[in-house]
Amino acid sequence: MMDTIVEAPKMFREMDGVKLENVQLPHVQETLSHCRNVELRNVQVKNADYPFAHSANIRIENYSQNGNYSFL
């Protein structure tokens, strides 16, 4: 997914091969949990409670986050 705003909490769960570039996620509750092989570039997240929980192989470039409990 590129150049967009994703306003869906709990998006991208239990997925393999997620790629996000130039994406804003204003409601990130449990987003990207139980995912594998995630690539993020120029991504901003807000209200981030439990993003990336139980995820593996995450590559991040130019990322900002406002929230709690990441990378469990």
How would you describe this structure to a colleague?
InterPro entries: DUF3737. It holds the Pfam family DUF3737. The structure is a single chain. The protein is mainly beta. The chain has one domain. It is 0% helix and 53% strand. It contains no helices and 4 strands. It has a 4-stranded parallel β-sheet with strand order 1-2-3-4, with no helix packed on it.
Tell me the domain tally.
Answer: 1
Number of strands: 4
The main sheet orders its strands as: 1-2-3-4
Strand content: over 45%
Helical segment tally? 0
Principal-axes geometry comes out as globular
- Over all CA atoms, what is the radius of gyration? 10 Å
Order of helices and strands: EEEE
Alpha-beta classification: mainly beta
* Average pLDDT, all residues: 91
**Helix percent band:** under 10%
Low-confidence stretches: none
User: How far from one another are the termini?
Assistant: 24 Å
Largest sheet: 4 strands, parallel
